[in-house]
């Protein structure tokens, strides 16, 4: 069964599968943690009950999504030792410290204050509870900071030397390792994407309940209207910013990873007098051309080099062995961009509805918001695929090839673990996602019940004390 299967390809598929599952949860919880902090602050400031109701409604969903993100992240990290031990050995001296700092400065911060945020409102008082909620939100951002720093270093390595005897990457300037050339752009683009992801999920849930109440002939609750309104404000303001950040990230990528941009644009051939922006086409790697191409002349040069006639190199300047898989990168990039503009369109539509006083009464706007609910999750996956597949055939761009990074495993071993991951992930995380959708399917209600801890007293650390009964 596994005779003609490449073990490295299976290891790549396994890592892609697990990281895709994992990335969905932080993409949601990073934004949701900040949303909960805003709701809690508004409740403390105004004492309006619907803010507290919304906090209690969404904190239950956050708790479940956070737990699934932690579990999926732990499983993913083990693959650095099982499937990618050569990469871990060579790059470990550089990336080991930032990954350890992520655990020490971010995960412990989140985990340490999470219990207070979930169960501590009546136990520690409103001030400390608000501080704990802020710490969880800050912790999610710091976690993204360190992980994206490591990932960015793999794309634009800096601040290192290569040991001539061991071939290991050794840090020479830790600040350059962290703040490598692509890191600021990737951090801003990814974190903003997480906020948009949360906004569209919250907006989709709010729109769903607005439509349901309309069908029932009843007025939606203030909490439902508030979460839909807040989500649409976020979409209207942040989506255009995200498109701008994406453009800046693309210009940085053109400077440091030109082959990736060539694949994103479908430019097999160089264009000395201005390159077209291809809207559609079927990449043909064998013939090195884009079949059935439909494009706008010279627009790619205008976007990437700010001039109609500026030259752009194509993949004909890149050796065949150093070219990324164009088909995957070409289409994932277009999915991400299309969803980004759709998000901006929905945000602008909501502004018009708000101006007309119809934000809560235009059913087609609400249907569009429901349809766009998962758009952020799809967009971040498409962006992640564009970034990571576009880096191939390297793990450390230009320096360490993927084929040379894998552990010396046989295909049957990797294939068996991949099948086990697929079965377990769909069973466990499928059940968790189903439960999250069940929580979302009911609207927030006045006096929304809080999360309740099972324990009714202090936890005993030295066994159970026998109580004498008279």
Automatic annotation (TrEMBL):
<keyword id="KW-0812">Transmembrane</keyword>
<feature type="transmembrane region" description="Helical">
    <location>
        <begin position="328"/>
        <end position="352"/>
    </location>
</feature>
<feature type="region of interest" description="Disordered">
    <location>
        <begin position="448"/>
        <end position="470"/>
    </location>
</feature>
<feature type="transmembrane region" description="Helical">
    <location>
        <begin position="100"/>
        <end position="119"/>
    </location>
</feature>
<dbReference type="Pfam" id="PF01654">
    <property type="entry name" value="Cyt_bd_oxida_I"/>
</dbReference>
<feature type="transmembrane region" description="Helical">
    <location>
        <begin position="192"/>
        <end position="211"/>
    </location>
</feature>
<keyword id="KW-0813">Transport</keyword>
<feature type="transmembrane region" description="Helical">
    <location>
        <begin position="131"/>
        <end position="154"/>
    </location>
</feature>
<feature type="transmembrane region" description="Helical">
    <location>
        <begin position="57"/>
        <end position="80"/>
    </location>
</feature>
<keyword id="KW-0349">Heme</keyword>
<comment type="similarity">
    <text>Belongs to the cytochrome ubiquinol oxidase subunit 1 family.</text>
</comment>
<feature type="transmembrane region" description="Helical">
    <location>
        <begin position="223"/>
        <end position="245"/>
    </location>
</feature>
<feature type="transmembrane region" description="Helical">
    <location>
        <begin position="20"/>
        <end position="45"/>
    </location>
</feature>
<keyword id="KW-0479">Metal-binding</keyword>
<keyword id="KW-0472">Membrane</keyword>
<keyword id="KW-1133">Transmembrane helix</keyword>
<keyword id="KW-0408">Iron</keyword>
<keyword id="KW-1003">Cell membrane</keyword>
<protein>
    <submittedName>
        <fullName>Cytochrome ubiquinol oxidase subunit I</fullName>
    </submittedName>
</protein>
<feature type="transmembrane region" description="Helical">
    <location>
        <begin position="414"/>
        <end position="437"/>
    </location>
</feature>
<dbReference type="InterPro" id="IPR002585">
    <property type="entry name" value="Cyt-d_ubiquinol_oxidase_su_1"/>
</dbReference>
<feature type="transmembrane region" description="Helical">
    <location>
        <begin position="364"/>
        <end position="385"/>
    </location>
</feature>
<keyword id="KW-0249">Electron transport</keyword>
